[in-house]
Structures are given as structure tokens and as C-alpha cells.
């Protein structure tokens, strides 16, 4: 996931930690978007079309948000009638995303507009929160997962990708299985070039891998990570990102 992408982040348990549910906080964020005139892109029911708009007004008393429909006069889409609309906008370095279940056409100060109900939740994502890297196969990163009654035995799992919020590892259930929705403490991340850091992981979801039917991709969230460990992990992510950019630059020149 890249910060420059204007497209909605797909629903994922890993994003739950970035969700805001407090009505007052949601209202404040939407008012900031309105005051700054942030362009909001609306995506409809998985339809390829979209609409660009700005928030005109936030009315917490009526639990409604009013958007300007005249911002995008050439848009072929109208929000009325769609049951699932995803809004995405960028406020400074924060990506804001929320969902509306229904939009209603209206007039606001004699201008075409539409309104939605104040969303029940909102995602606030900073680049460092969800920027993921894939460790190179030439220098694989490993996650040593504790198991056994004493928790002192470890299974080494290959890291498929990771961010400061979590990681995905590959398992073969026939040999070693990770239970979903379970917190596993006292694990270790072995990051080439940076070192080993202690982590607690919560298994959020498990998916099959298309290339290997026997393998599983396990998405995990980091829980209560120490600040020093987070700094080491961020250093590793920056290092891999820099290496990837260097390789891409060489390929472009070639």
C-alpha cells in the first residue's frame, strides 16, 4: 500500500488499529477536511467510475455531512442510488477514508450538493503506519514464533511482508499451524542488517497462497511493541525501501 495511492484501502483486520469511532473525533476530522478544502474522491459500489468533491458542511446535530456536487461538473457519476460509497482524501500526510451507505441529492446555497450520514467510523492512515515492504529472497527476514507448553521452543517462519503495524508470514499447517485470533508472546523478528527484536503477534487472518495450495499466508498485528523495537523495525523498513528504489532506478536507466 502506498501513500500516494488515491484508491481505497481494501478492508483488512490489520487496519482496525487505525479506525476512529468517537463521533466527536470523526466530526473534527471532517471539519478539518472541509476547512482545508481537501478534494475527496468518492468510489461507488466497486464501480470503475468516481466523483471528486469537497465537504461543504458538517452538521453533528443532524449527523450529516454535505458535499459539493458542482466541483466535478464533468463527472458521469451521481452518488444518489448507490448503497456503498467509499470516500478518500489526504490531509497533509494523513490518508482519510470512510464509507457512506447512502447519499441524497440536495441544494446547498443554491448549488447542487449531496449529503450523507456522519460515518460510524473513519480510517486515519499515515505513510509510516501502513507502508509495507517485502524482504528480499536473497536476505530473507524470519519470525521466530514461540510454541510449546513452556513457550521456549521456536518455529522459524519466512516473513512475506511487514510494516510497523504488523507482518505476514508463510506457514505450512501440516508442519506448523498458527491459530487465528490468538496472541502469541515472546516471539522474535530476525531482520538482516538490523538485528533481532522481540515482538508479540496477534494472528488476524489466514489465507491460502495461490502458488502453493499447502501453504498459508498469516496476517499478524504487533501488540505492545517497545519503542526501541519499533525504531529498529522502522530502520529496517527504510533500508529495504531504499534498496528497492535503487534497484528500480537502475532498471529505468538500463
Topology of this protein?
Layout: E1 19-20, H1 23-35, E2 40-44, E3 50-53, E4 55-59, E5 64-68, E6 85-91, E7 94-100, E8 104-108, E9 111-117, E10 122-126, H2 127-130, E11 142-147, E12 153-162, E13 166-171, E14 183-191, E15 195-209, E16 212-222, H3 227-253
Antiparallel strand pairs: 1-10, 2-3, 2-6, 4-5, 5-9, 6-7, 7-10, 8-9, 11-12, 11-14, 12-13, 13-16, 14-15, 15-16
Put the structure in a nutshell:
With 254 residues, this protein is an alpha+beta fold.
Q: Can you put this structure into words, describing what you see?
A:
- This protein has 254 residues and is of the alpha+beta class.
- It has a six-stranded antiparallel sheet. The chain has a six-stranded antiparallel beta barrel with strand order 11-12-13-16-15-14. A four-stranded antiparallel sheet has the order 4-5-9-8.
- The longest helix is centred in the last third of the chain and has 27 residues, at 227-253.
- The chain has three helices and 16 strands.
- The relative contact order is 0.13.
Main attributes of the structure:
six-stranded antiparallel beta barrel; alpha+beta; 17% helix; elongated
Query: Major β-sheet, in short?
Result: 6 strands, antiparallel
Specify the overall morphology: elongated
Oligomer: single chain
Low-pLDDT segments, ≥5 res: none
By secondary-structure content and strand pairing, the structural class works out as alpha+beta
Biggest β-sheet: strands ordered side by side in the sheet: 1-10-7-6-2-3
- Give the DSSP E fraction (strand runs of 2 or more residues): 35-45%
Cα radius of gyration in angstroms: 22 Å
Name the helix and strand elements from N-terminus to C-terminus, one letter apiece: EHEEEEEEEEEHEEEEEEH
Let me know the average pLDDT: 86
What is the helical fraction, as a range of percent?
10-25%
Figure out the total of helices. 3
| Distance N to C terminus | 26 Å
The count of β-strands is 16
Amino acid at each position: 500500500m502506498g501513500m500516494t495511492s488515491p484508491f481505497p484501502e481494501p478492508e483488512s483486520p490489520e487496519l482496525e488499529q487505525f479506525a476512529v469511532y468517537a463521533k466527536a473525533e470523526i466530526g473534527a476530522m471532517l471539519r478539518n477536511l472541509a476547512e482545508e478544502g481537501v478534494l475527496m474522491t468518492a468510489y461507488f459500489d466497486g464501480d470503475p467510475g468516481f466523483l471528486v468533491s469537497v465537504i461543504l458542511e458538517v452538521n453533528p446535530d443532524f449527523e450529516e455531512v454535505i458535499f459539493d456536487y458542482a466541483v466535478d461538473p464533468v463527472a458521469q457519476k451521481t452518488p444518489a442510488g448507490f448503497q456503498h460509497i467509499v470516500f478518500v482524501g489526504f490531509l497533509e500526510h494523513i490518508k482519510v477514508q470512510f464509507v457512506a451507505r447512502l447519499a441524497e441529492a440536495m441544494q446547498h446555497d443554491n448549488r447542487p450538493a449531496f449529503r450523507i450520514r456522519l460515518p460510524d467510523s473513519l480510517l486515519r492512515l499515515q505513510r509510516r503506519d501502513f507502508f509495507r515492504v517485502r524482504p528480499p529472497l536473497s536476505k530473507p527476514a524470519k519470525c521466530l514464533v514461540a510454541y510449546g507448553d513452556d513457550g521456549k521452543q521456536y518455529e522459524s517462519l519466512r516473513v512475506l511482508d511487514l510494516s510497523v503495524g504488523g507482518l505476514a508470514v508463510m506457514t505450512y499447517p501440516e508442519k506448523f499451524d498458527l491459530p487465528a485470533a490468538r496472541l502469541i508472546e515472546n516471539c522474535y523478528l530476525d531482520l538482516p542488517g538490523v538485528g533481532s527484536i522481540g515482538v508479540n503477534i496477534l494472528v488476524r487472518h489466514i489465507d491460502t497462497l495461490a502458488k502453493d495450495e499447502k501453504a498459508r499466508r498469516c496476517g499478524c498485528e504487533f501488540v505492545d511493541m517497545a519503542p526501541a523495537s519499533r525504531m529498529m523495525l522502522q530502520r529496517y523498513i527504510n533500508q529495504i525501501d531504499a534498496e528497492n528504489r535503487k534497484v528500480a532506478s537502475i532498471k529505468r536507466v538500463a
